[in-house]
Amino acid sequence: MNNFQASERNFVKRTLILIVAVTSMLSLSLFAQAQTPSATPPVVSVIGEVKAIDNTANQMVVRADSGVLFTVTLSDKTQYKRVAPGETSLAKATAITLADVGAGDRVLARGRGAAEQNTVPALQVVVMSKADLAKKQEQDRAEWRRRGVSGIVASVNPSTQEITVSSRTIAGAPQSVIIPITEKVMMRRYPPDTIPKYSEAKPSKLQEVKVGDQLRALGDKTPDGSHLTAEEVVFGTFRIAGGTVTAIDAATGQIKINDLQTKKPLTIILKPESVLRRFPEGGGMMLGGMGPGGPGAQGPGAQGPQKQGPGPQGPGSQPPQKQGPGPQGPGAQGPGGGRGGMNMADLLERLPIISIKDLKVGETIIMSSLQGSDPSQLTAISLVTGIEPLLQMMAARQTVGPQGGRPQGVDLNGSFGGMFGGVGVP
């Protein structure tokens, strides 16, 4: 081997070593870059309700839909947009200022940066005002009352793809509606692990509907009210309980009752999303003509809600046989379409909303809840107080004895099914 060949071999060898070294360095460099965060901060956001605004600190406290509180930091670069409820883009958004945002508004706040300690540095805040939301919800509720049905699932027929929903009218007459389920029907189910909200109902299908579920459907009824061509169906599995209030703790949001059915103490937990309503004092007199046997009927339990006595003047003070409860107008006849009159859901959902401070020891309540792991505690979804006159009237239809009708004789699920769904519309 001559010197030229030896020199050439050494050059190739050194070149190969250099290539390997460079390749290794490049690989390490690329690996390091892969491990290094991008220079552009990630997008962070929060959707929820405005709880407070601090103009001095340029901050906004937002309670996310998950219940977690976030601090939204604001700056001179933050843009504010208002959209109407139901809009899915910013095409029709209007520019506003921070002064136009208030507590109770629903917002989407988003920006770039690390969401450390539940903090979102907002470059944009999209707002749906509390007033606009309330107006839209009332319009939707009116639509569901006018074109909707509610009740307990009495049967599910997979072969015909039909659901039969049953409910009771104020007069006690059972009524059923058959709902065909086609591919055009939007099926939604309330999630079982929290206080369900209508806006958070999950996509579902006929196979998930069970007998005993509470269900509501929106659509067009046949003239006799026996069938409904549904556009939307929302349902869930709930427990209805009732009892006499024995203690109230407004600070912790808890009340204690003696359960009507088990006769055992039961703790009711009230969350910010829980909806409380009151049956009006003297409201039992409005229902007096609807006891067993029809207007003016006498018999066990009839004397409670049927007798006249002190109470507010107006429609409820008229003789019981002349007028029933509730407003007159579209939707007042309930899902029966005139076959049995307004049902319990139609009646009770028109009652005024109250707070825990309006509850009183000794009153009788009914409420809905999801079944939890502790049978001695229930978290209220919807609750109605002052309901004893109505329970007595209903018990009189179901229980006949020397002592007359008592609230303990009421089938709560059968009587009030459909009233207690999720929070919000419908």
Provide a brief overview of the structure.
The chain has 426 residues and is α+β, with helices and mostly antiparallel strands. 19% of the residues lie in helices and 31% in strands.
Radius of gyration: 31 Å
Tally of discrete structural domains: 3
Order of helices and strands: HEEEEEEEEHEEEEEEEEEEEHHHEEEEHH
Low-pLDDT windows of residues? 3-9, 15-36, 289-340, 399-408
Structural class: alpha+beta
Mean pLDDT: 76
The largest sheet has its strands arranged as 5-4-8-6-1-2-3-7
Overall geometry: globular
Oligomer: single chain
| CATH fold topology of the largest domain | OB fold (Dihydrolipoamide Acetyltransferase, E2P)
Main sheet summary: 8 strands, mixed
How much strand content do the residues show? Answer: 25-35%
In total, the number of strands is 23
Write up what this structure looks like.
With 426 residues, the protein is of the alpha+beta class. The chain has three domains: 43-128, OB fold (Dihydrolipoamide Acetyltransferase, E2P), CATH 2.40.50.320; 136-236, OB fold (Dihydrolipoamide Acetyltransferase, E2P), CATH 2.40.50.320; 239-308 and 327-416, OB fold (Dihydrolipoamide Acetyltransferase, E2P) (Beta Barrel). Helices cover 19% and strands 31% of the residues. It is built from seven helices and 23 strands. Strands 5-4-8-6-1-2-3-7 form an eight-stranded mixed sheet. An eight-stranded mixed sheet has the order 20-19-23-21-16-17-18-22. β14 (214-221) and β15 form a beta hairpin. The longest helix has 33 residues, at 3-35. The protein is globular, with a radius of gyration of 31 Å. Residues 3-9, 15-36, 289-340 and 399-408 have low confidence and may be disordered.
